[in-house]
């Protein structure tokens, strides 16, 4: 059953989309295989591995973040790789970003190590089936978009170098999902201290992440936190992903404890 939170996020994701991008989003949201795998990925992540949320809410939030970032970049006149290389349009780049972000953590249903590649294994046929509906009778576009979706999924952890702006957005969109709600479930389930707790407690310190139009660069990311533990998320998670992203030069990044002066990272 779809939760009220997911329903609200579905509406937020669909808002402002049109044409082939809207059709892609609708197909992703209606796909029962994706829904089951996202739910199970969260079960493995939280219950079995004691990590934070890597399920349907997280993947929706990353998709919302990614769509917001690509739109802000487009509004500033940034041309994406598919168009630069005369392979596709901005709308095709949006399809890539939307699919990669919405599916990126499904491999967590197997485990943490190598989950990026496991995502591709689990979603390959799903991606092909959806792209056949988005690009009927255009095998070339189906294959090229699929390859770029794979790049976005493979690169989202920042452990493998990526080269397209489209894939670079997924890293940053993923890193921006760090608000306290993402840590709430594992914190409530916690029964004792263990190595790795800093990820949960630093995430719990993050109050709000804003993704807005920048003043000097196309995208401004501002992170508000309730205590200094939140800087761990900025410096050890988000910044590492931004540093591996071809989109880095288009980002402004600010962070700080509420009521205190913001620190500018980029």
Structural overview:
The protein has 266 residues and is α+β, with helices and mostly antiparallel strands. It has two domains: 4-174; 181-264, no CATH class. It is built from twelve helices and four strands; from the N terminus they run αααααααααααββαββ. The chain has helices at residues 4-14, 19-30, 32-48, 56-75, 81-84, 90-103, 115-134, 139-154, 165-175, 181-189, 197-204, 231-243; strands at residues 206-213, 219-225, 251-257, 263-264. Strands 1-2-3-4 form a four-stranded mixed sheet. A hairpin with a 5-residue loop joins β3 (251-257) and β4. The longest helix is centred in the N-terminal third of the chain and has 20 residues, at 56-75. The radius of gyration is 18 Å and the shape is globular. The termini are far apart.
Task: Supply the key terms.
12 helices, globular, 9% strand, 4 strands, 266 residues, alpha+beta, 58% helix, 2 domains, 4-stranded mixed beta sheet
> What is the element string, with H for helices and E for strands?
HHHHHHHHHHHEEHEE
How many individual β-strands?
A: 4
Helix vs. strand class: alpha+beta
**Mean pLDDT rating:** 91
| Helix-residue proportion | 55-70%
Shape: globular
Low-pLDDT runs: 184-189
Give the domain tally.
2
End-to-end separation in angstroms reads 41 Å
Radius of gyration: 18 Å
Q: Give the neighbour order of strands across the main sheet.
A: 1-2-3-4
Q: Note the beta-strand portion.
A: 5-15%
Number of helices: 12
């Amino acid at each position: 059953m779809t939760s009220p939170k997911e329903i609200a996020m579905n509406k937020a994701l669909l808002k402002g989309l049109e044409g082939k991008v809207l059709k892609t989003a609708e197909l992703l949201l209606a796909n029962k295989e994706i829904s089951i795998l996202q739910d199970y990925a969260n079960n493995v992540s939280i219950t079995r591995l004691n990590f934070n949320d890597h399920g349907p809410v997280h993947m929706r939030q990353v998709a919302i973040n990614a769509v917001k970032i690509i739109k802000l970049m487009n509004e500033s006149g940034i041309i994406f790789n598919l168009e630069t290389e005369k392979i596709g349009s901005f709308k095709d780049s949006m399809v890539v970003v939307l699919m990669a972000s919405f599916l990126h953590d499904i491999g967590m249903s197997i485990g943490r190590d190598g989950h990026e590649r496991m995502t591709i294994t689990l979603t390959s046929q799903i991606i092909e089936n959806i792209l056949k509906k988005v690009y009927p009778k255009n095998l070339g576009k189906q294959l090229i978009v699929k390859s770029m979706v794979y790049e976005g999924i493979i690169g989202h952890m920042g452990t493998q170098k990526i080269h397209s702006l489209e894939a670079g957005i997924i890293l940053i969109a993923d890193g921006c999902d760090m608000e306290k709600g993402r840590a709430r479930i594992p914190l409530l389930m916690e029964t004792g201290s263990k190595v790795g707790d800093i990820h949960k407690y630093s995430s719990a310190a993050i109050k709000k992440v804003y993704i807005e139009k920048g003043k000097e660069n196309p995208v401004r990311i501002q992170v508000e936190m309730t205590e200094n533990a939140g800087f761990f998320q900025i410096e050890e998670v988000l910044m590492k992903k931004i540093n591996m992203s071809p989109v880095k030069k288009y980002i402004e990044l600010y962070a700080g404890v509420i009521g205190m002066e913001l620190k500018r990272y980029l």
